[in-house]
Amino acid sequence: MSYDLYIGDRTFSSWSLRGWLMLEKFGLPHRAHLVGLYDGTFHSDLAQLTPARLVPVLRTPDGMVIGETLAMAETLNERHPDAGMWPADPEARALARWLSAEMHAGFGGLRSACPMQLLHQYQGFVVSDAVRADLDRVEQLWALARDRHGAGGPWLFGTYSLADVFFAPVAARIAGYDLPVSDAARAYVAHVLADPTFRQWRAMGLVKTYDPVPYAMDLPSRGWPGPQVLPAKPVTAQTSENPSCPYSGEPVTDFMELDGRVFGFCNPFCRDKTVNDPEAWPQFMALP
């Protein structure tokens, strides 16, 4: 049986990113349902999920409704003790919970001044004292986790854990506003941006366009600082190399071109998320 996850717009909803990562990164079956943050349907979309009033919201296979990402994380950890969601070492696990709880409750200066956006990187953002203080605290916590428990890999506690889930939107903010951080922190941000699962979330978010763009700033911008994306484009075609969609297995109806080759998908969303970042999708990359 599968979880149902109700999320806001992927390009902007930092809390929704957390909810999705804790299911996707640990292999927990789920279906995502998009709630209309900017479409005027937000409250009606959540009406069936009382008493939820924010996204994300999780509904368990047995019908229990859970709001707030910290509660979701602990519930999933209880239900899936073998998934390795928190570090196995008790000291590391306690610190990971501490860091995640502090992220969940604090860092108001960074949150308010730098809303998460995954479109581009702003240039010339002026860092206030409040944002600088939050960045200093983020660096302190990241360095502490890495120094004490990060020897086993590139993530905060070596291997991927819920602590990385909770700080993924922080890494996105640092990237999206080109915030001044140390080389060590910048390396961690780059690792988050290069993670295929994070890239998939961003690619799906870019399928939807906005006019006006939420949280837009009157600043110059340049391309998103993540890995360079392969140059794919949607095309009108009658045939493709693959007769069935690499994701669903259904017959193809929509097409894209990559390196002069045409590939097919079962709907525009499957095509467009692939156009936005082909290498983020192993099912697709198995074709070319």
TrEMBL record:
Q: Which residues form the GST N-terminal domain?
A: 1-84
A molecular function annotated in GO for this UniProt entry is: maleylacetoacetate isomerase activity
Can you supply a Gene Ontology BP term from the record? Answer: glutathione metabolic process
Key words of the record: Transferase
Q: Which InterPro entries match?
A: Glutathione-S-Trfase_C_sf, Glutathione_S-Trfase_N, Thioredoxin-like_sf
In terms of SUPFAM superfamilies, this protein maps to: GST C-terminal domain-like, Thioredoxin-like
Task: Indicate what this protein is called per its UniProt record.
Answer: Glutathione S-transferase
